[in-house]
Amino acid sequence: MQMPSDPPAHGIDLPPAPAERISERLRRRWLSRGRHRALRFWLLFRGLPVLILYGLLFALNGFLMGWRKAYDVSIAITSPADTPHPVPAWLLSIAGWLVAPGVAGAVAGYVISASIAGRRGMSVEHAFAEDRDG
């Protein structure tokens, strides 16, 4: 039997917490971005915005001159000067030369750096030891 001064068995009823505003939620997420390490941080906060801008530029050119022509301009099959809208086509051509190889090279660089960093602590004899089981 419960005593009258004991709290109820399920705890104290509290009012619900106020809903977090979108600006506060975005600020909290932005400030906590340091929890990501190396490759994930770069992909989320450097690579993704660049790829989104490239995608928007590609979509703009796709709507202006056609998707096939935009693809051809992007990978330098067709000259941007031979399109009906040369200014956005030149931007797409330059982005195609810089962005795609840059992102792929950055990801490869991070992967190789992580692999090398894992072996730096080893001695040369241990890293190149021969297997003498047989």
Would you give an account of this structure?
This protein is an all-alpha fold. It has a domain at 37-117. The chain has 5 helices and no strands. It has helices at residues 22-31, 38-65, 67-74, 86-120, 124-127. The longest helix is centred in the last third of the chain and has 35 residues, at 86-120. The radius of gyration is 28 Å and the shape is flat. 10% of the residues are buried. The mean pLDDT is 81.
List the helices and strands and how they pair.
Elements: H1 22-31, H2 38-65, H3 67-74, H4 86-120, H5 124-127
Give the gist of this structure.
The protein has 134 residues and is mainly α.
Structural category: mainly alpha
Q: Give the mean pLDDT.
A: 81
What does the radius of gyration come to? 28 Å
Total helix count? 5
Q: Tell me, briefly, the overall form.
A: flat
Succession of helices and strands:
HHHHH
How many strands appear in the DSSP assignment? Answer: 0
**Which range best describes the helical content: under 10%, 10-25%, 25-40%, 40-55%, 55-70% or over 70%?**
55-70%
Q: Which sheet architecture does the biggest sheet show?
A: none
Strand content: under 5%
Low-confidence stretches: none
Question: Terminal Cα separation, in Å?
Answer: 75 Å
Features of the shown structure:
mainly alpha; 134 residues; single chain; flat; 5 helices
